[in-house]
Design a protein that fits this description.
Blueprint: H1 5-22, H2 27-52, H3 56-69, H4 74-86, H5 90-101, H6 108-120, H7 124-132, H8 141-153, H9 157-168, H10 175-188, H11 191-204, H12 209-221, H13 234-250, H14 254-267, H15 273-287
Helix pairs in contact: 1-2, 3-4, 4-5, 5-6, 6-7, 6-8, 7-8, 8-9, 8-10, 9-10, 10-11, 10-12, 11-12, 12-13, 13-14, 14-15
TPR repeats: 175-208
InterPro entries: TPR-like_helical_dom_sf, TPR_rpt
Organism: Wenxinia marina DSM 24838
């Protein structure tokens, strides 16, 4: 990461030299204004760092202190709201985003983020009400992603499909949207379409374990009990075999489920407690 200190020092030095050379009575005021501008740049850089690479709870502490010192600064309260969500402090994040969204300086994007926080808090009706306040001209990835999730919750499948498709056109990292859209189809019983969407998600992000697990669920629901040909670690393979086994057992394919559980136990490089316990319970029930 480049350090902004050196160029800032250079700017300050130039201002000082200019002031000294001119003998201007306003030189001190010029220097003060220049240093104030530099401090703003410094603070802006620090805010960005806190919102991206800093530990989420450290960022929360920073923005709590900063916004407490300057309660009229909506940008600092916005940073606090973002940091609370990053730190998985969802209830506090909802309160913080509500304050930002309802502030006279609040923007449509703030209202979209408020809706996203409400979704995380499982408050779907409230999220829908907030999104309804956002004008249709505000067309962003997050807006359509949240609209799709709300439509899913309402089982408005056509609307959900439309919103997912629009969201896909507004992002360069579509794996998450494809995974959510796939899960939507999985919940509807459209297993083949769900499988296709999960496969597309993994094409964009081969390491997304949630999509791998969902892909196994979609295949298992179609009684395809072989693992898909995807990149996976040994631990992931064991976990996916376990998911497949539970899917088979749920569909009363007990022999296949037992075999898959045993394979999961044998595949895991360490003790796989959940699979071992499920296998023991299954064998106990069968023997009884």
């Amino acid at each position: 990461m480049r350090h902004p200190i050196a160029p800032m020092a250079g700017v300050a030095a130039l201002v000082l030299l200019s002031a000294c050379g001119g003998g201007n009575v306003d030189a001190e005021a010029e220097v003060a204004r220049a240093m104030q501008d530099i401090n703003v740049i410094d603070e802006s850089n620090l805010n960005d760092v806190m919102l991206t690479v800093a530990d989420p709870n450290e960022a929360v502490n920073y923005f709590q202190r900063a916004s407490g010192s300057a309660p009229d600064r909506v940008d600092l309260r916005r940073g606090l709201a973002r940091s609370l969500i990053r730190a998985n402090r969802v209830a506090e994040g909802v309160v913080a985003w509500r304050g930002v969204a309802e502030d006279p300086q609040g923007t449509d994007e703030d209202r979209v983020n408020y809706a996203g926080a409400l979704i995380r808090d499982n408050r779907w009706d409230d999220a829908e009400a907030v999104l309804d306040q956002v004008p249709p001209t505000h067309e962003t990835f997050d807006r359509y992603r949240f609209e799709a999730m709300v439509a899913d919750a309402n089982e408005e499948w056509d609307r959900a499909d439309s919103f997912y498709e629009t969201a896909l056109g507004l992002t360069t990292t579509p794996a998450g949207v494809l995974n959510n859209w796939g899960y939507s189809n999985l919940s509807r019983g459209n297993y083949r379409e769900a499988e296709r969407l999960f496969t597309d998600a993994l094409r964009h992000d081969p390491d997304m374990f949630t999509a791998k697990n969902n892909l196994v669920l979609a295949r298992g629901a179609q009684r395809q009990y072989d693992l898909p040909v995807i990149r996976m670690t040994q631990v992931e393979k064991a976990q996916l075999l376990y998911t497949m086994a539970l899917t088979a057992i749920k569909q009363n394919d007990l022999t296949i489920g037992r075999s898959l559980l045993q394979e999961a136990v044998d595949t895991h490089p360490q003790h796989f407690e959940e699979a071992s316990r499920a296998l023991a319970a299954l064998e106990s029930n069968v023997s009884n």
